[in-house]
Amino acid sequence: MQNLIPYDNLIRNLISDIIAENNDVISIAIQNRNKFEGWLKFELANKLQKQKFKEVFVESKYERRRDRYDLIFTDDEYLSYSIELKTPNTNWSITGVSKCSRPITKNINSIISDTKKLNSRYGIIAFVLFPIPKGCNKWTRYFEKIKNECNLPIEIEENCKRIKIKFDEKHNECDVIVCTYFSKQYSWI
């Protein structure tokens, strides 16, 4: 069996870089609670190509199924990795951010569904949870729900990164959480 590389960490770092490099775009999404998954797919595909991965595809079909992966890339060992990407928005009250009535639970259930659907040794789930009130840890219970319902050995400290964002001229701030993990439990070799 081949060594697997923790590409989930790489994906988390690349997404974090994209967010940091595009504060103006992310600020618009935050203020209006607009999901930005489509835009992020192409930014991430671009970063993966610059990392010299081969065969980077956006919206590629599952093998023998009608469903599509959000992204696929191949490494130097010719192993293909699939990414399911989500940008779930929260409904917590934050000054300077429009109100949202959609419960966060529906967004979290969508991540759980994608995790179970992908269920591949080479499948990576990546999501950007936003906006989070500055320093608030309410979001951690949803991470634990994902962990428990998907039976995964993931941990907040290892699989998530908190990014502070100033999103308007009044210097209002919030946090954005970037989480990545492999969709199936396995042991590292």
Tags for this entry?
single chain; 189 residues; alpha+beta; 6-stranded mixed beta sheet; 6 helices; 6 strands; globular
Q: What general form does the structure show?
A: globular
Biggest sheet strand line-up: 1-2-3-4-6-5
Q: In DSSP terms, counting alpha (H) and pi (I) runs of 4 or more, how many helices?
A: 6
- Round the Cα radius of gyration to an integer and report it: 16 Å
Range of helix content: 25-40%
Output the helix-strand order. Answer: HHHEEEHEHHEE
Q: What does this molecule look like?
A:
The chain has 189 residues and is α+β, with helices and mostly antiparallel strands. 37% of the residues lie in helices and 26% in strands. It contains 6 helices and 6 strands; from the N terminus they run H-H-H-E-E-E-H-E-H-H-E-E. It has a 6-stranded mixed sheet with strand order 1-2-3-4-6-5, with helices on both faces. Helix 1 crosses helix 3 and helix 4 runs parallel beside helix 5. 33% of the residues are buried. The model has no long low-confidence stretch (mean pLDDT 90).
In brief:
By secondary structure, the protein is an alpha+beta fold. The chain is built from 6 helices and 6 strands.
